[in-house]
Design goal:
The complex is a heterodimer of chains A (116) and B (112). Chain A has 116 residues and is mostly beta strands. Chain A is built from no helices and 11 strands. In chain A, the strands form 2 sheets. In chain A, strands 2, 4, 5, 6, 9, 10 and 11 form a 7-stranded mixed sheet that branches. A 4-stranded antiparallel sheet of chain A has the order 1-3-8-7, with no helix packed on it. With 112 residues, chain B is mainly β. In chain B, strands 2, 4, 5, 9, 10 and 11 form a 6-stranded mixed sheet that branches. A 5-stranded antiparallel sheet of chain B has the order 1-3-8-7-6, with no helix packed on it. The chains are: A mainly beta (116), B mainly beta (112).
Chain lengths: 116, 112
């Protein structure tokens, strides 16, 4: 089946630094990738939809200048958390759509971010 | 925004018992999916049921969908300790091509 990877799997950083998280579709091209955030003991919340070659669409309440998304190729989307603060500590999960509709959407393993 | 609401929020059962989780949603959907997430780990896709289907089986899993009531249920039969996890329903909205919207999840604990 299709595989989506994320890197890094976990990261600890100091407050005020920026962190980049990569999401890659390993064996398929993803026209659309989605970024979710999950706080402890809560559900996944959609942050943004990323389409290759165009600007990401952010959900209400998600700061686009803080969470920079770049979908530079059909196999890579990156999420950069700029000037991270402790409240940004969360589990970030990406998913990639093969273009066959949501029946063919695959999730990455997630990246755990801890901001000290 | 969240679309699905799982019920119950937490469920504790003994091995061998059946576990039933319910999900309600608010708007029309193309399909509904169920996922499992072990503590601190990624999502595992369990089953997808389309809006024109009423019931689907996969191994020990049975999913039903009632679009008139905007609800779905996930039944895990003969549960095992390894089934301990959080279970989420996720829906896609019409028109197709939008992201999945997840419910709040049910935390299942199966004790041996």
């Amino acid at each position: 089946g299709a595989v989506v990877s994320q890197h890094p799997s976990w990261v600890i950083c100091k407050s005020g630094t920026s962190v980049k998280i990569e999401c890659r579709s390993l064996d398929f091209q993803a026209t659309t990738m989605f970024w979710y955030r999950q706080f402890p003991k809560q559900s996944l919340m959609l942050m943004a939809t990323s389409n290759e070659g165009s600007k990401a669409t952010y959900e209400q309440g998600v700061e686009k200048d803080k969470f920079l998304i770049n979908h530079a190729s059909l196999t890579l989307s990156t999420l950069t958390v700029t000037s991270a603060h402790p409240e940004d500590s969360s589990f970030y999960i990406c998913s990639a759509d093969t273009g066959g509709g949501l029946e063919t959407q695959y999730f990455g393993p997630g990246t755990r971010l801890l901001v000290l | 925004s969240q679309q699905g609401e799982e019920d119950p929020q937490a469920l504790s059962i003994q091995e061998g018992e059946n576990a039933t989780m319910n999900c309600s949603y608010k708007t029309s959907i193309n399909n509904l999916q169920w996922y499992r997430q072990n503590s601190g780990r990624g999502l595992v896709h369990l089953i997808l049921i389309r809006s024109n289907e009423r019931e689907k089986h996969s191994g020990r899993l049975r999913v039903t969908l009632d679009t008139s009531k905007k609800s779905s249920s996930l039944l895990i039969t003969a549960s095992r300790a390894a089934d301990t996890a959080s279970y989420f329903c996720a829906t896609d909205l019409i028109p197709a091509g939008t992201a999945l919207i997840f419910g709040k999840g049910t935390t299942l604990s199966v004790s041996s």
